[in-house]
Design goal:
Layout (H helix, E strand, L loop, with lengths): L8 H12 L5 H8 L3 H14 L18 E9 L4 H9 L4 E6 L6 E7 L2 H12 L4 E8 L10 H9 L2
Antiparallel strand pairs: 1-3, 1-4, 2-3
Length: about 160
């Protein structure tokens, strides 16, 4: 991953407007931001190609699909099998995200479950993945700060 900044203040303004109103049309964004439609369209397309705009999936809550429990599974793994482990974890529907970590724990896996018994089943599936040596599961009791990007977008529009 590069630390090089690829978005400028105008891109950040467009993204902040989209964060506020994800359904805004290019024309509405152009009017709101005082930019031409072509500028907004070109920049949005470039950000989509470059990966600055993520998946719409993030806005769908697992609770709405019958998965009210969120848990974090930390795992110690055989590093030589990381590609296979990642692929196996991606095949488990309830696995929402997997992060590689530095330190004693190798992976952080965010999972969702229907109930405690379902979580037990999912944790067992994760532990059964070849190359995973040990896991620890922690149940999320409450989300205190939801996923957000707007503060960073505001900072980027100010040029700080």
């Amino acid at each position: 991953m590069s630390n090089e900044r690829t978005l400028d203040g105008t891109d950040a303004r467009i993204l902040l407007a989209l964060a506020t109103d994800p359904r805004a049309t290019v024309v509405a964004l152009a009017e709101q931001l005082g930019l031409s439609r072509n500028t907004v369209q070109a920049r949005v397309a470039k950000m989509e190609r470059g990966g600055a705009l993520g998946s719409f999936e993030r806005r769908i809550t697992p609770t709405a699909l019958g998965y009210p429990l969120t848990a974090f599974v930390t795992a110690q793994v055989n590093q030589h099998q990381l590609a296979e482990i990642s692929q196996a974890l991606a095949a488990i529907d309830e696995v929402m995200e997997v992060f590689g970590l530095s330190g004693e724990t190798d992976l952080l896996v965010r999972v969702v479950a229907a109930d405690a018994e379902d979580l037990y089943r999912i944790a067992g599936q994760i532990l059964a993945v070849p190359g995973i040596e040990r896991t620890t599961t922690a149940l999320a009791m409450r989300e205190l700060v939801p996923h957000r990007i707007a503060p960073l977008l505001r900072r980027a529009t100010d040029g700080r």
